[in-house]
Sequence to fold (344 residues):
Amino acid sequence: MTKLQTRLAIMLAACACLAGAAQAQDSSLPAYQPQRLARPASAPYLLRDGSIYIVGDDALDEVIAKLDGLFAKTHPGFKFTTLMKGSSTAIGGLTAGVSALGPMGRAGWPDDLAAFKETYGYEPTDIHIGYDSFTHPGHKNPPALYVNAANPLAGLSVEDAARLFTSGMAKGDLSHWDQLGLGGKWNKRLIHLYGLRDDGGFATSIRETMMGKHPFSPRYETFERPQDVIAAVSQDPYGIALMGFFNAEEAPGVKLVPLASGGGGSFAAPSYEAVKAGRYPFASYLRIYVNRRPGSPLDPFVKEYLRMVLSREGQAIIAAGRDTEQGFVPLELPALRAELAKLD
Fold:
């Protein structure tokens, strides 16, 4: 083993301590094998001092700082400057060409992506690096459906959720609670739909990504504030709400609806285990958007950085964020392999 290889091995061993037991649980993930990489000389994301500039979501500030530290340790001479101000800035920095990466804790909303596509003629490449949030006391849940606490609904498939909230699905719209198997006072009662405005933000994004891009039902009643959406359902036993990140503990009159990806699948609430296993279909990915022209290879630095994030050591950094305010969840091996395949 050369002196350089020995030094890299020592550095990686030290970085592995960041997650302790979390890393041990994910020993099946591929270890990071740093590749020789020349420092970029003229990339638009380089600052005058030679540092690589990254603009992104402030929720990922600590994670990106640790990932940058790992990369700098395994690639001496590389240095970074970050501006972590929110998800809305991540794709903006990528669009302007000043940011090497666009780390975000949610999917890019249509308005975010439209400006990038208008500039480059294609959409940014979306690399999933983990999950953002799971149900844990005192923290926000990931996107979910909520019903009144008295509602006996056991769960919904994603297809049925789309048939509820939008119009035009092939199997027809769902409009009454008995269509979902509810009896008693729910029998033959109309389902009241609540949610946020279809204004290019969360509601538009989930309608386009999870509900076949169909328009919302004419019965979909909207509010500007998440608190008002939840308040409406807490007061309406026949209501159901489509919500983004929200701490349901602040609204004791509602309960989260478990979901299933397919019609025959088992329902899952967004527990840590279900999110990590990919069984909760509304789970929100942690992701890094990158600028990659279709048919062209990734920027060498960007590819190497993403390889590191999708390694055992990179995922250990994600896993170490489990007990933070956000509550991060790493990828399991099948999902990680799928993301690595996107890099080629």
User: Anything to note?
Assistant: The mean pLDDT is 91. The domain at 144-274 is CATH 3.40.190.10 (D-Maltodextrin-Binding Protein; domain 2). The radius of gyration is 22 Å.
